[in-house]
Amino acid sequence: MRPIDNGCSEKSTVFFYTPGESSRQTFFYPLCVGHYYCTDQYLVQRNNYNSFLLIYIKKGEGFLEVNHKRYGFHKEDVVLVDCYKPHIYGTTKDSEILWFHFDGSTSREYVNMINNNVGPVCSVRNLISFEKDLNRILLMISSESTVNDALCSYYIVKILTDLLLCSTKLLKEENTHSITEDIISYINNNPSCKLSLEELADRAGLSPFYFTRLFKKETGYTPHEYIILSRINIAKFYLKSTTYSIKEICFNSGFSSESSFCSTFRRVCGMTPSEYRVDNDVD
To answer: pTM of whole model > 0.90?
Structure first.
């Protein structure tokens, strides 16, 4: 380990690795890895560092300046930097970042393709899988055991390939639509289940934060708002087409109590369930 960069707390860590010559010629390989807890004073400015850098924003936000352009990044973004060129990056609030410098094999081709298609700040399709792969790399380099260069290369390529696939706009749109459609179908088919944010995000293979952001972008509603509207629509159907009691409709629609159902229905529809039933001529 070496001293931590300015703008990072004492609990931040960084580890260096020197692969063998055969690994340099054959694999993608990490040069150093880090887990930083940054303040708003964290800033790095270099003309070059002879490697490529991947930063995952676990918490917080900041900026990157490359090629005379400035890019903002936020929680759960991935930043990919060609450190062979002049670059500046830093955090603008308290942040937590995971990162590694890497090189080897066709690294430049991967980085150029990703940057040319989506830019240096991007997202991933499956955040849970991405974090696992990233943590595996950090764990291998930070541990005292011998590093498996082939396995380390595999995880780097897997991460870069995921970023490359996400940089294809059509694939990204198809993937996000598919995720949202699957979750909507699950909500509509399971109105009486608890349907917590954590459960839905896990089913989508995303973090709760990123899942909420994606769902809102695709539907215009947060998951919670959509669940409420779905349950209200089911209740409307029962009120118009059955003679079930209000209490029966309440639980069949997925609400936990009659009072909660009635107050939510009134807030959304502007009338009580009983008034809605009368207006729709159901005896």
So the answer is: no
Q: Is the pLDDT assigned to residue 84 strictly greater than 80? A: yes
**DSSP code, position 3:** P
DSSP H/E element including 126: none
CA gap 151, 140 in Å, rounded: 10
Residue entry with tokens 């890895």: 33
pLDDT tens for each residue of 61-75: 999 999 999 999 999
Would you give the end-to-end CA distance of the chain in angstroms? Answer: 76
Angle between helices 127-142 and 149-166 (to 10 degrees): 150
Q: Return the structure tokens found at 119.
A: 């830019």
Q: Is 62 exposed, middle or buried (0-12, 13-18, 19+ CB in 10 A)?
A: buried
Could you write out the three-class secondary structure of 67-103? CCEEEEEECCCEEEEECCCCEEEEECCCEEEEEEEEE
